[in-house]
Amino acid sequence: MNKESGFQWKLGMFVIIGLVLFVSTIYFVGKQKNLFGSTFNLKSNFKSVSGLEIGNNVRFAGINIGTVSDIQLKTDSSVVVVFVIKDEVRKFIKTDATASIGSDGLMGDKVLTISPGIASTKIVEDNDLIASKIPIDMEDVMGSVKKSVDNAGIITAQLAQFTYNMNNGNGTLSKLMTDKEMAGSIKKSLLNLETTSNEFASFTNKMNNGDGALSKLVTDKKMGKMVDSTMKNIEETTKGFTEITEAAKHNFLLRGYFKKKEKAEDKKQEELDSKEEAELKKAMKMAEDSAAAVKK
Amino acid sequence: MIIYLKNTFNDVGKVSLFATRFFKEVFKPPYEFKEFVKQCYVIGYKSLPLVAITGFIMGLVLTLQSRPTLAKFGAESWLPGMVALSLIREIAPVITALICAGKVSSGIGAELGSMKVTEQIDAMEVAAINPFKYLVVTRILATTLMIPILVIFADAIGMLGGYIGVNMHSEINLTRYTSQVFESLAFLDIVPATIKTFFFGFFIGMIGCYKGFTAANGTESVGLAANSAVVTASLTIFIIDMLAVQITDLFF
Hints:
The complex is a heterodimer of chains A (296) and B (252).
Chain A: H1 2-32, E1 39-46, E2 57-60, E3 63-75, E4 78-86, E5 98-103, E6 110-115, E7 128-132, H2 138-168, H3 172-178, H4 180-209, H5 213-219, H6 221-250, H7 252-295
Parallel strand pairs in A: 1-7, 2-6, 5-7
Antiparallel strand pairs in A: 1-4, 2-3, 3-4, 5-6
Chain B: H1 2-26, H2 33-43, H3 48-72, H4 79-117, H5 120-126, H6 131-169, H7 174-184, H8 187-213, H9 220-251
């Protein structure tokens, strides 16, 4: 009897450990598929599910919170996706959340991602319908990648042309890059510019602080006033002078002289007029001749 | 040729009769419960070290062997999932069944064969004990129920071997490894593989018993019974495995 119970407990332990392992495996796999624990359903309409399958993960903020439980065609352009989500995350999902289909890595499974909304504060109910975003197809991505690759090709070709021109061309920019003489002359002119600016600096310094006439003219206020009064005096003097001339014109002694001057001026004018007329006639005649030649 | 065909049909017919007799007797009282428990101990518990070592080595070796191929694709992170899938779906059931075919089936064949040769079975009948019920039914039931449990142990220990295999080249902690394993598993991976093991167990027991029970008179026939039990059981395991995988593939 003693010996018998010796092997019996070993057998019991063996069987129980085996069964526990099996049951725990079933439990953990089931937990992965949300078969145990309280859950709730959400629905969303898609135009295309792009390869999403039943059992794919549902993510919210990057965390797996559930699985896709059903995918059904509703009309020819609408698919209803039902997904099971753990009850404990329900309080975070508001009614304006959106569902989108993405993929887990480049080659990985598709995942359904729920993104939170902004405005709503109402928590979703069981079997609610939430909005969907159009999934990004791999083909679209490839299309845009192709476009940018094409553009890159054009850009590099032009860049190559540009570099070639830079190395071998005769333009200013390429000269600037390659010509040694040009560099020398630029250096020289820069040196000249430097000396010029130095001179100019000392000049301005003198202008500001010197005692010469020019600097006084620029800086001294007294001198300015003096110049101003001188100018006024000159103006007054010229006024007086005009008056004197006018008076002289009417003076009988000097009238003769002025009349003579007027006459000489008139004559000069007449001569000029007749000269112009003659020239005009000449031109007209030449024009007529050329017209006749054309006719012939 | 005709004689060969006739012999084959004869054998298949005998095995079928043997199997139907088992199903008839298994539900009929009296039940030999004590003998059943003893056989479970011998078949299940005593085979555990052998199965454990095999499972551990299979997990370790499979991990190390698949690593270079996966590394080529930069998919080393899939290693735990891949090892778990191939162990649970195919390798652990078949290897465990083959080991048990070698250990259990040949044991049963030799034991029953020698009992038959030494006319102990006839003596049982004289003593009003149904030898079929006492010897055959208990053994077949024991293998049918113990092989699945042994396979579960092989799975678990194989996963441990895989964990060590993964850690030889890179580092992964046990929690992450376990979660990766369970992430890759679905019921479809576990359930058909488990159902399959019951059939493995049943056929291991039945072939061993049939070969022993129908051993001819003579000492050399004991060895023959043990030998042919191992060969036939191993072959049957592969055929059942193929059928099981095809049926699973057909329905899912």
